[in-house]
Write a structure and sequence with these properties.
Radius of gyration: 24 Å
Keywords: DNA-binding, Transcription, Transcription regulation
Structural class: mainly alpha
Helix content: 55-70%
Protein name: HTH gntR-type domain-containing protein
CATH architecture of the largest domain: Up-down Bundle
Order of helices and strands: HHHHEEHHHHHHHH
GO molecular function: DNA binding; DNA-binding transcription factor activity
Number of domains: 2
Number of helices: 12
Largest sheet: 2 strands, antiparallel
CATH superfamily of the largest domain: GntR ligand-binding domain-like
Number of strands: 2
CATH topology of the largest domain: Four Helix Bundle (Hemerythrin (Met), subunit A)
Distance between the termini: 61 Å
Organism: Brachybacterium vulturis
Shape: elongated
Strand content: under 5%
């Protein structure tokens, strides 16, 4: 396999699983070929719509049979990573956060102790970074994202109007955090926060219910307004500091006796 690229060689030369008789399991070879294709996509920077080499070319490149390659491609197609059609080379599919979403939701739910704490451990630093990067976009030469100022101002008004609406406010709360992640300009950061949106929304609903129960509605709203104002002012230090305070306040509120 001297002609293989380094990524493919790493996957295909890794120790393989053996059955009870010491025979190389067929599935392990297809799995390793699958990982090698993933490495190829990443290494060559292939984007949505870009074609992969033909089945024959991949088989020759990886030193495996066409059948093994077809099994590997079928597995990747089932995961939504590539698209396979008869008579044509497989192509890379657009990014889909559903796999990450599924994994993170499972990982958070299976974390030791409180799942909300696990969510906040993941979410907190990302939210702080997103707020800083969003404010950066409004600083300096005024080259802010198109329509972003109006969207944030509209959200500010809608949050104000919905403060006493226990059903609507958590929806707008989530929308605000999603907007900030989008304004960060970091697609990976936005994707990670988007991937935890389902458990995050449930947590926001639970927090609001607790606030209603104890007459503490409004504290989180003050943080939201300060974060929006700091972003609109192009003040990354204040935006990140207030977001960090907001994250600590939410976690402290939910973990208090």
């Amino acid at each position: 396999m001297e002609d293989l690229d380094a990524t493919a060689r790493k996957h295909l030369s890794a120790p393989a699983a053996e059955d009870a008789h010491g025979t190389l399991e067929r599935d392990s070879l297809a799995d390793r070929a699958r990982d090698a294709v993933l490495g190829l996509i990443d290494q060559e920077g292939l984007s949505a719509g870009d074609p992969l080499p033909s089945t024959g070319a991949l088989a020759e490149r990886f030193g495996v049979s066409r059948t093994v390659v077809r099994e590997a491609l079928s597995a990747l197609a089932a995961l939504g990573i590539i698209a396979v059609s008869n008579g044509r080379s497989a192509t890379v599919r657009p990014l889909d956060s559903s796999l990450v979403q599924f994994y993170l939701a499972r990982a958070i739910g299976e974390s030791r102790g409180n799942s909300f704490t696990a969510l906040m451990d993941l979410r907190g630093p990302l939210e702080v970074r997103a707020a800083r990067r969003a404010a950066d976009g409004f600083a300096g030469d005024g080259a802010e994202p198109s329509g972003a100022r109006q969207r944030l101002e509209d959200l500010r008004s809608r949050l104000d109007a919905a403060l006493q609406n226990s059903a609507l406010y958590p929806q707008l709360d989530l929308q605000l955090h999603q907007e900030i992640a989008l304004l960060s300009g970091n697609r990976a950061l936005h994707g990670l926060l988007e991937a935890v949106s389902i458990p995050l929304f449930r947590a926001m609903q639970d927090v609001r219910a607790e606030r209603d129960l104890h007459g503490l509605v409004g504290e989180e709203h003050t943080d939201h307004l300060r974060i929006i104002d700091a972003i609109l002012a192009g003040d990354p230090d204040t935006a990140s500091a207030v977001m960090e305070h907001h994250m600590h306040a939410v976690q402290s509120f939910t973990t208090a006796p």
